[in-house]
Specification:
Four copies of one chain form a homotetramer. Chain A contains two helices and four strands. By secondary structure, chain A is of the alpha+beta class. In chain A, strands 2-3-1-4 form a four-stranded antiparallel sheet, with helices on one face. In chain A, strand 2 and strand 3 form a beta hairpin. The longest helix of chain A has 17 residues. Chain A is elongated. The two termini of chain A are 24 Å apart. The interface between A and B is medium-sized, with 27 and 26 residues. Strand 4 of chain A pairs antiparallel with strand 4 of chain B.
């Protein structure tokens, strides 16, 4: 099942600036076969629902392995059966 | 890896009231081995990260099978390595 | 106009544990005339839409005055015209 | 106090497609003096914190006046005191 998603991951305990961690997270997402659109408050993704959820898990595991102590992800996840959901179809 | 999560699923196209769908979704969550705490804007969950993500996928698939045309999930997902994350530990 | 809301405020740069800040934020909310229900991932609120939004602004200003350097609020805000929205009415 | 925000407004009861409502909401935002960046799952905004919150209230009131029965807004709101928060500064 295809899905679109908007993912923001917040590392807690990494200090006020979390740019380094965000760059690592987007780097991890780019290793997958998703259509990605980064924006100021997250990254929009288009792909298989199962792959998106697996990527979220991988990001938590990989960022903890790199030293992140606490991570909160904010995920908006959308599926629909009347048509294939795409990022392009959600643009104004 | 243990995680806590807060899940809200919004069915679009089901009308103004979505209580029936919310009850079905919480019913699906109760079939899992999670600690659950429903609240006015979602359901807090405690369990294995992989199980929580699998439950989100199952909910989308099951609700579409029941006739939901469009679903948006809002998931807050938290993991930490300094201690085991629990719902009890997040209460004030 | 009456509204219900779910507010979570994340202080960045305050370290891994943010319990002290969360307690201060809930303390600020209790000074208002809202119905409040704290849960593991935020606080549900019922009150006037304008009052809820003013409280969010007050929290950002007050927490910065107390020393918080960076704050991200996650607010779910709901209004409806077919009936008065209440937290009680959203419980399962 | 300057802020950045990411706003998504979901009309419930408007059917499966909510494009018309989303276009109206973005149209309302454009009447303000914000820097706006629409994306597939919301609109990023940069402006005064008080103005952003007032715009959210105005959107709820205006959309209800146009006939929307139930509205849920998802707002991410960020402020910081170490530098002026901007959308440009949040881009990778």
């Amino acid at each position: 099942m295809k899905a679109t998603a908007d993912l923001q991951v917040i590392p807690l305990g990494a200090g006020v600036s979390v740019r380094k961690e965000i760059e690592q997270i987007v780097g991890l997402l780019k290793q997958h076969d998703f259509i990605l659109e980064t924006h100021a408050a997250g990254t929009n993704m288009e792909g298989e629902l199962a792959d998106i959820l697996a990527a979220v898990q991988q990001i938590h595991e990989a960022m903890h392995a790199k030293g992140s102590v606490r991570l909160i992800s904010y995920l908006k996840l959308e599926t629909r059966t009347d048509k294939v959901p795409t990022l392009a179809g959600k643009r104004l």
